[in-house]
Amino acid sequence: MASIDWYFDFVSPYSHLCLYRLREVSSEINYKPVLFAGLLNHWGQKGPAEIPAKRQWTYRWCTWWARELGIPFRFPAAHPFNPLHHLRLSIACGNRPDAVRRIFDSIWTTGANPMDPALFTGLCSELGVSEARLAAPEVKDQLRTNTEQAAAQGVFGVPTFVVDGELFWGADAVGFLGAFLRDPGAVRSEEMRRVDRLPVAASRKT
Questions:
Q1: Strand bridging mode 4-8 / 29-33
Q2: Angle formed by the axes of helices 52-69 and 13-21, to 10°?
């Protein structure tokens, strides 16, 4: 089985929760930060926080689920926020697992404002990255490439695992991913092929 690409964005509480569940995945994982807003634009979707009722549900659900899973979690002082600098910081750090986790924890365990310049400067210093490095063309290009590659593979949300051409979306898809890794027939079965080919019986007007 090929290694697993894990697409995430620091703006996503589900990505933070999924990060803590990666220990349940035995295969090698490639960390790939993407701009969630770019994926939304590509597919013509709204994010959960852009629908008021869904925003409330998402914030409540993630707060409750993190507690159930025993994952350190606290919503930042403002959300959604622009995660661009954090994504570039991850890339500048080589997407090292320890650096990715530190960035996530700085946002999702403290209750602080992730847009506070002083806090971000301190985070960069802690990770040994100059803020000027974040503006380097290769850093910007890598984030753009990651996002474009994710969209080309059919990734529509974060977090998403991609392995051997199959997508597993969401922090709650870890079990499904594990089943596939143990037995590809969990996805590549006749019934799965049947539902993939289901015709559309009615379409909503937009």
A1: parallel
A2: 20
Each residue's pLDDT tens digit, 26-46: 899 999 999 999 999 999 999
Helix (H) or strand (E) holding 4: strand 4-8
Number of Cβ within a 10 Å radius of residue 145: 12
Q: How far is CA 70 from CA 18, 50, 73, 102, in A?
A: 12, 28, 9, 18
Phi, psi at 16, each rounded to 5°? -65, -45
Q: Does this model's pTM top 0.90?
A: yes
Contacts of 126 (CB under 8 A, 6+ apart): 102
* Contact present, 94 and 142 (Cβ < 8 Å): no
3-state secondary structure of 202: coil
Structure tokens at 103: 């960035």
Cα 173 to Cα 71, 91, 145: the distances in Å are 17, 25, 25
